[in-house]
Design brief:
It is found in: Cell membrane. Its main location: membrane. By secondary structure, the protein is an all-alpha fold. Helix content is about 80%, strand content about 0%. Helix 5 crosses helix 7 (about 150-175) and helix 8 (about 180-185) packs antiparallel against helix 9.
Length: about 290
Amino acid sequence: MRALNVLPSLGRFVNKKRVVVSFFYYSALVVYAFFVLIPILYMLFSSFKPESEIFSKSFGLPKNWTLGNYERLFSRSHYGLYFFNSILSALVSLFLIAVFSSTAAYVLAKYKFKLSGYVYAYFLIGLIFPLQLGTIVLLKMMLSIGAYDSLIALILVNVARGIPLGIFILTDFIRMIPEELSNAARIDGASESGIFVRIILPLIRPALASVLLVNLIPVWNDFWFPLVFIKSDFIKTIPLATALLFGQFETNYGFVVTVLAVASLPVMVFYLIASKSFVKSITGGALKG
């Protein structure tokens, strides 16, 4: 009887503990969201302000809303072309990263051959050393193959930088797929390429979205390699063109925040599209792990 009387009080204690833990958990999320959103809102509101108001009323809503910065961005500058270069470079790079990473990860995960462990370790080494260490070698290579001062140079570097991470994520994900699925398809007469396209690719779609999402940020924001490989004005990308807005004696900050606000839109849109698959890949990997 005494034990039965203790049970209700124990249940109330557990419920209070859950409420306290949830309170601190959501409070931490709110604080984190606050620090993430403040720079974005500052950038967005500043793009609708005259330059004089950016500094006199930095953190408030615009007193005089204006689209002047946006009109100048698309009518008096080449930023439409710079955006096209960045989007083209990013899309082609991500597509090639997805193709090469998924096929290589499939081979390393499902086929055992003598050097498979060494090949996997070779790709993982690419995660340790930053590609910037080989800038001189890469520059000589781009000059020798005629890719210097073209978007091809940026795409090649982006793909080389993204493949190791893609293989690292996708190989573990593919290893968790039961081999019985592939064997059943083989019995039905499916080829190895058919198994990869029709069975493996749909199953690794959340992990593939994670690979693209993680690689999008460094590809889109890369400043170093465009600075080294690009010389012509009509091939510049957004980060390189934006850096040139900061003059030695004068900088138009209204124009700068407008460029940054527009440049952040593709990343945010892609994240909203792929975030569901990104979360699904994390939770799926955690449950299976």
